[in-house]
Amino acid sequence: MSLAQDIAAFIAPSAQAPPAPTSGGAVFESLALRLFAYQYAHNLPYQRFCNGRGQTPATVERWQDIPAAPAAAFKRFALTCVPESECPVVFHSSGTTGSETSRHFMSAEALELYKTSLLAGYERHFPSQPLLALMPPPDLAPHSSLSFMLETLGAEFIWGESSTSQLQSTLSSLATPCTVFGTAFAFVNYFDATPGEHFSLDESSLVIETGGFKGRSREVEKSELYALFAERLGVAPAHCFSEYGMSELASQFYSQGVDGPKLAPPWLRTRILDPVTGNDTAPGQPGLLAHYDLANYNSVLAIQTEDMGVWDERGGFQLLGRAPGAVLRGCSLLAE
Where does the record place the Acyl-protein synthetase LuxE domain (predicted)? Predict the structure, then answer.
């Protein structure tokens, strides 16, 4: 089988596996090293970056030593293993008005692997039930990875000038469990537009929120937002989840409840690094998140983010927000 097929075979049977540890795993490491060699050979900007650091497939022996490209590089370089013209989809970060946006070039092979990853990752956490998306559909947001993801999951999109009445009508008519997926900003915007309105959704219904407020709208604490889910939708905090993803990543993290840690599937690993030394932080010490995603087939599998995090003793990590000075961005800006 090809490398992409081998990665897909590793991802697909893992849908019901427990959360991956932060290190170890001979299969993950073997695939990561093979993918690094492929990307080094075909992604020329990344190759130059690796050469500058003296880290090449000939010298790297562990997945942790694969050079992590800065997330900002997606704004300035075409990080793709095939010509840009052969990529049917290009995901962009939301960005602020007039700012540079990241570009994630998806070849046909990478796009299929992305679908495999997002479906398997979602099915690890959530049951199959109607999915409502408080996001613009792909025809209105063709470069949004989140809109593409939700369409792949079969979501019904609720968006536009009539979205408030549409959501009201849909929630009122539901007699079965559903999952409501939206940005934090979109939920607050809806609650503000419908004061005093309350629903009692089926007890098996779920809420998944993603993105923050990015300093651009009325902000509420996460605990307050989850209390609103309980009060206004009838969905208990234990049935509320958070999704953490990036346009530069092909896989997603999910957490449960107000303070649940972000958990990754087995094909996605994370390191938390001291921003000064570049070494892994000790337990309890915050640092910059670096992600290693086998589903990032056509770009780079290792990404150094501008997000801060700390390991959680329950597994996974807690997201602490953007590093000081990081540019505002995210899917909530799209909702705004």
Answer: 178-333
